[in-house]
Design a protein that fits this description.
115 residues, mainly alpha, Rossmann fold, three-stranded parallel beta sheet, 3 strands
Amino acid sequence: MSFIEEIKQRAKADRKTIVLPEAMDSRVLQAAQIILSEGVCNIILLGDEQAIKAKAAQENISLEGAQLINSHTYEKQEEYAKLLAQIDQTVSFEEAKQLIKNPVYFGMMMVKSRR
């Protein structure tokens, strides 16, 4: 077994979730398709669900098995903003509410809170 195959087998045995905030990037969607098809881990793509699906269809990419979450409408948005303000005390809660609209910040807080 090759080194890469060994890593994949270990990942499959202890399946984790990866949050990808750049869901409108074709390279990210292609990587997600590969990861999903190999069953290496779970994938969460952040962004507008319809836009992600349209981009994937345009690129002929299957996202079957991926979870799509719109960070602008997700019910835990305020919870994540509170967490961000607690972690970075130089940021007010109001500033955190604005920052959390950025998918990168949102994804970090999703991972930090374990969803």
